[in-house]
Amino acid sequence: MRVSPGGRPATGYDIVLQAGVLRETAAFLTDRLPDCRAAVVVTDGNLRDLAAPLTDALRGVGVASALHVVEPGEKSKSLESLHGIYGTLLDLKADRRACVIAVGGGVVGDLAGFAAASYMRGVSLIQVPTSLLAMVDSSVGGKTGVNLPRGKNLVGAFHQPAGVLVDPDVLRTLPDREYHGGLAEVVKYGVISDAAFFGWLEENAGAILDRDPAVLVPLIARCCELKAAVVAADEFETTGVRATLNYGHTFAHAFENLAGYGVLSHGEAVSVGMTCAARLAVSRGMIPPDVLTRQTALLERFRLPIELPAAVEAPPDAVLAAMRSDKKNVAGALRLVLPVRLGEVRVFADVPEEQVTAALTP
Amino acid sequence: MRVSPGGRPATGYDIVLQAGVLRETAAFLTDRLPDCRAAVVVTDGNLRDLAAPLTDALRGVGVASALHVVEPGEKSKSLESLHGIYGTLLDLKADRRACVIAVGGGVVGDLAGFAAASYMRGVSLIQVPTSLLAMVDSSVGGKTGVNLPRGKNLVGAFHQPAGVLVDPDVLRTLPDREYHGGLAEVVKYGVISDAAFFGWLEENAGAILDRDPAVLVPLIARCCELKAAVVAADEFETTGVRATLNYGHTFAHAFENLAGYGVLSHGEAVSVGMTCAARLAVSRGMIPPDVLTRQTALLERFRLPIELPAAVEAPPDAVLAAMRSDKKNVAGALRLVLPVRLGEVRVFADVPEEQVTAALTP
Ligand SMILES: NC(=O)c1ccc[n+]([C@@H]2O[C@H](COP(=O)([O-])OP(=O)(O)OC[C@H]3O[C@@H](n4cnc5c(N)ncnc54)[C@H](O)[C@@H]3O)[C@@H](O)[C@H]2O)c1
Ligand SMILES: NC(=O)c1ccc[n+]([C@@H]2O[C@H](COP(=O)([O-])OP(=O)(O)OC[C@H]3O[C@@H](n4cnc5c(N)ncnc54)[C@H](O)[C@@H]3O)[C@@H](O)[C@H]2O)c1
Ligand SMILES: [Zn+2]
Ligand SMILES: [Zn+2]
User: Fold this and answer.
1) Which of B35, B118, B121 to mutate to test binding with chain A, by most A CBs within 10 Å of its CB?
2) Which of left, alpha, beta for B127 (phi over 0: left; psi -120 to 50: alpha)?
3) CATH 2.40.50.140: does it fit domain B176-358?
4) pLDDT greater than 50 at residue B169
5) Among B90, B143, B157, whose Cβ lies nearest the Cβ of A118?
6) Residues that bind Zn(2+), according to the entry (chains A, B) (predicted)?
7) Could you say which of 3.40.50.880, 3.10.450.30, 3.40.50.1970, 3.40.109.10 is the CATH number of the domain covering A2-173?
8) Quick count: other Cβ atoms within 10 Å of Cβ A356?
């Protein structure tokens, strides 16, 4: 699969989606980046065994390499971790032709991606996403970055990878909660841009839950295609097209802010958020109730919540305030991505706040 | 003057070169960035009085603004300073339409430029260079970045400004040593790309030393044009054209490394470096001795050294080792930019080391 961000073929790159492709990383690197002499493999502690063999393989093809392992979890997406990766690159005497290889979920991808974007004003990046979310979402589109103590993803760069290697085999070890969370984004692609894909998900829900490789490959491929198409239309998030990927997310970010750390995963928050968004669209008469019903059934089938756990205190006013402070809003007006039919969404900036709070509960 | 990096008009920006233009910054911003509602003015302690009025002017046109002052000097080009600027942006609730305004020399420009490149994956940047070096060199070309404890400019991004405002009046307060250092880069442009400009510098050397506004405007304009032309041919330093700007610099970086902190300014090191490079070209029969003589005379006229101060211990082997570790070298081979006539240089990767060391002394 070839991705051309912003429709510019010169910066296009390949997504290779194939069981076992993780083991081909060194060969891919020498093929695509023949001048590269040094590579740092960044991963997190949970994936050390998966990533470690790559450094040997790289040395085998004449590329000096080092493994850089960060703590698993969002806290590693920090300026401090970034500094650590720069140190490992310097230890390798990495020059501008060096490569950073991110083996992990979105945390490792975003962190290592920004290290690649900024070390010596930019070196090559190969993404090897290992979580479902990273495969279908974060590894496509070129967004990289780290958090600041005062907020998420506040620092970063757009930096397209030299290639993305997706090995569905590695999903076997992904914890259930992470896998189901990734499926929330998968459902999102169906609702925002592909009703036929949504139907395919409904038909294959059992095999998907079983992580059957026969369905995982087409599933991941379609999500990457759908995301890549959006990115191609709006590489730098300037035309508004990319905002459609935010379906369910303005609600979700508010829920994540209000819930305590670890109570609600991102995917779970998105699942509840899409439910609120679809409910809002129904209440405005924009979609028939059937779209909400089908979306709810699929999310529940994928073991995702459709309302907030009782433990989360989220009075409507607090939700609204948190939604208003979402950084995707322009000039303080609440911008919501709402479905206009299954497979199509639009951005609305004029939704009355009473409608929004009414949509928070069934 | 309009600059189109990489020849792409869509990303072009204006350099406005005019006495008093500093005071027009707020008007420029509202004209070019009508959506901007928040701007951070970054400067250093020596320039506080120059920069402070801008924040009032910005508030006057409805843009929330803050002054962020760093310590003068290279040490402020750090990840820590960067973090501080992010904090000021967050205090202003700056969103993606925000602007960073760099009022200062190359240190402030590089630091504030990288803050703009990375905050929320990139906000707008206006450069208001105040040192001669920043006016003729660092504010043109889009390079931004910070140092790491282990080396200079190791982290950064290419980020083109929305505009560059050059006010020659502010040069009045620039310390002599900084002014003369900037002239080393000015002489460089003549040697590498414009013999007529070199002749003009010789004719107007007196007025230039007096900082006569009547010569400063055409001087700065020509340097910006010459640098912009090189950058347009090689925006991301990939084709090798941009390497010509490195004339004298491989020597200079070695001298700066060997000299203690503060002994040799960058411009002084470049002046000695260009002298060595021209001498080397003469010894190889590439240029007549006359080119070296004229370059030497002009550098001396501009109060620049043409050999290392006695205090700097620089045995030839140490110089060579330092030159070899310059990050502009590819695969360890020494790459030198040498004149082939006044107004033209080429990159040479095959100069015998004995010739290099011989060129270190007259
Ligand atoms: N760049 C983008 O466009 C983009 C898009 C969406 C999300 N994100 C970012 O992605 C991050 C979330 O990504 P994530 O959900 O992958 O989180 P993550 O990277 O923290 O991974 C989740 C957990 O799963 C583990 N894991 C990953 N792959 C595994 C495997 N194959 N086997 C066993 N364990 C495995 C990880 O060690 C981690 O503990 C957030 O920081 C978010 O901001 C970025
Ligand atoms: N980005 C690029 O393309 C590029 C190119 C060349 C150099 N640089 C960088 O530029 C930096 C050097 O820049 P610099 O020489 O301007 O140093 P600088 O920014 O430290 O300024 C030199 C000194 O002059 C003072 N000063 C500046 N303008 C003044 C004025 N009008 N009146 C009084 N004092 C004034 C400053 O406060 C400082 O003390 C280095 O970090 C170098 O790496 C970047
Ligand atoms: Zn998401
Ligand atoms: Zn220089």
Assistant:
1) B121
2) beta
3) no
4) yes
5) B157
6) 185, 249, 266
7) 3.40.50.1970
8) 22
State mean pLDDT over B104-117: 98
Are the CB atoms for A119 and A93 separated by under 8 Å?
no
Q: What tens digit of pLDDT does each residue of B213-233 get?
A: 999 999 999 999 999 999 889
Are A182 and A209 in contact, with CB atoms under 8 Å apart?
no
The CB-based long-range contact list for A277-281 (8 Å cut-off, 24+ gap) reads: A277/A247, A277/A248, A277/A251, A277/A336, A277/A337, A277/A338, A277/A339, A277/A359, A278/A191, A278/A339, A279/A359, A279/A362, A280/A336, A280/A338, A280/A351, A280/A355, A280/A356, A280/A358, A280/A359, A281/A338, A281/A339, A281/A340
Per the structure block, which two tokens stand in for A327? 């950084």
Could you tell me which of B316, B326, B286 has the C-alpha nearest to residue B191? Answer: B286
Of A79, A121, A237, the CB nearest to B145: A121
Domains of chain A, by residue range, sit at 2-173, 176-358
Ligand 2 pocket: which of B74, B103, B130, B164 to mutate (most atoms <8 Å of CB)?
A: B130
Report whether A310 contacts A253 (CB < 8 A): no
**% of chain A surpassing 90 pLDDT:** 86
Q: How many CB atoms lie within 10 A of CB B222?
A: 19
Closest of A17, A91, A24 to residue A58, by C-alpha: A24
Q: For chain A, what percent of residues have pLDDT higher than 70? A: 95
pLDDT at B9: 46
- Give the CA distances from residue B178 to residues A67, B173, B188, B267, B339, in Å, rounded to whole numbers and listed in that order: 44, 10, 16, 8, 26
Please, what is the Cα angle at A1 between A186 and A120, to 5 degrees? 95
How do residues B19-75 score in pLDDT, each as one tens digit?
999 999 999 999 999 999 999 999 999 999 999 999 999 999 999 999 999 999 999
Distance, in Å, from the CA atom of A335 to the CA atom of A348, rounded to the nearest integer, reads 6
B59 touches chain A (CB under 8 A): no
Structure tokens at A322: 């948190």
Interface predicted TM-score (ipTM) of this complex, two decimals: 0.92
Rounded to whole angstroms, how far apart are CA atoms B339 and B282?
9
CB pairs under 8 A between A and B: 73
Number of the ligand closest to the Cα of A185: 3
Predicted pLDDT of residue A4: 65
Contacts of A46 (CB under 8 A, 6+ apart): A72
Q: Which residue has the higher pLDDT, A343 or B257?
A: A343
Residue A9 is predicted with a pLDDT of: 46
Looking at residue A10, its pLDDT comes to 47
Q: Tally DSSP H helices, then E strands, for chain B.
A: 14, 11
Please check if A159 is assigned to a binding site. Answer: no
